[in-house]
Amino acid sequence: MAMTAGEECYELLQVLRKRLRKKMLTQSIAVAKVSKNDLNRIFTEDWWPLSFLLAYHYDVDVTYSVIVECLKWRRSFCVDNISLLELKPLLDRGLAYIHGKDCNVWINMRQHVIGQQNSDKLIIYWLERHTMELQAAPITLLFDMSLCCLQNMDLDLIKFIIRSCKYYYPNCLTSLLIFENPGLLKASWILLRTWMSPEMQRLLQYVKRSSLSAHVPLPYIPKRYGGQDNFMFTMDELARCIPLRSSSSELIYNQQDTLQNDTANSDMPFNDTTYFNNLGPRRSVTFEENTSRGTSLTSASQLIPSIIKRNGLPQALRPLAEARLHTPIKDYAKST
After folding, report:
1. Measured torsion, CA atoms of residues 329, 330, 332, 336, in degrees rounded to the nearest 10
2. How does DSSP assign 59-115, residue by residue?
3. What is the distance between the alpha carbons of residues 81 and 180, in angstroms, rounded to a whole number?
4. What angle is formed at CA 179 by the lines to CA 175 and CA 184, rounded to 5 degrees?
5. pLDDT tens per residue, range 208-244
6. Fewest Cβ atoms closer than 10 Å to its Cβ: which of 82, 184, 213, 320?
7. Which is it for strands 104-108 and 96-99: parallel, antiparallel or unpaired?
């Protein structure tokens, strides 16, 4: 009897997990280069590895390579320990935030200048939060280029965002909107387009104020752009919806137990049709690019706690700031 599409995908998922487990057992990549939370998620939550499989046309070899590099990058970038206190100046200025019915990430490029620190961390914070809370649900990136000039056009940052959507958060991006791009920066986006895969190029669209409503519902378009939305992002709003830790962080990954569980469940059919219906069409992705950001990162341990001003924080975030201020320097990057 022929397998259904769901059962076939489940079989590929088991093959992928066995290869990952074999690499960890033989090369010990799990010891220092991979987060325990990520290992738990890979082996206990189907949606995450499946999002990679779908993005790479169910090619186990390519998916395996991408996931290994993604796991290493997540540990080196400290994705689980991005500090809101580091990001507060950028959040206050509204550099990037999530808003809208269809989970739009608004990126106001005029609030960024070349060489500015932590902009990449802020983008990853929102992509991570969206992906892990909504399990790789579709997302739109909207680059607001209005009033931008050459000093705002950071090619390295945008290339990093493109690469992150391709390798680290695959199968999520459904639209890439460039809003009110000045003529001065037209050549820059032509260059950026050459760095995208053909699939991502098809998602790229240039929109103006008159056509924005065709992509974003009027209730979620700011009034300054002809919409109906009075929304202004604030730290108070962020504090009201700070997510809890992922459930995978409460699990303890055990290689032997996982191997036994996979063997016991190998005959179980995969029936999560809702997941496949929500992921959209398959997309092919090549893996020819360098997956590490060229610029050096500033770790949380390099921050001087005395420069953090409590008085500038909203009331809801002050307990978090208090905990950070009283954390020993050696543990500062680990506290949350």
Report:
1. -140
2. -HHHHHHHHHHHHHHHHHHTGGG--HHHHHHHHHHTSEEEETTTTEEEEEGGG--TT
3. 34
4. 125
5. 999 999 999 888 898 989 888 888 777 666 655 554 4
6. 184
7. antiparallel
Identify any residues that bridge with 206 across adjacent strands, giving them in sequence order: 178
Residue 291 CA to residue 249 CA, distance in Å, equals 25
Paired tokens of 324: 């950070």
Spatial separation of the C-alpha atoms in residues 172 and 328, rounded to whole Å: 38
> CA dist 22 to 74, 76, 108, 255, 302, Å?
20, 22, 44, 10, 37
CA nearest to 140, candidates 101, 179, 178, 104:
104
* DSSP labels, 291-316: -S-SSPPPPGGGS-GGG--GGGS-GG
Token look-up 């341990």 returns 301
| pTM for the structure as a whole | 0.72
* Mean pLDDT, range 95-117, rounded to an integer: 88
Residues in Cβ contact with 247 at an 8 Å cutoff, skipping those fewer than 6 apart: none
State the SS3 of 146-175. CCCCHHHCCHHHHHHHHHHHHHHCCCCEEE
Q: Angle CA(327)–CA(329)–CA(332) in degrees, nearest 5?
A: 60
Phi, psi (rounded to 5 degrees) for 23? -65, -40
- The angle at the Cα of 92, spanning 86 to 97, to the nearest 5 degrees, equals 90
Q: What is the pLDDT of residues 50-88, one digit of tens each?
A: 999 999 999 999 999 999 999 999 999 999 999 888 999
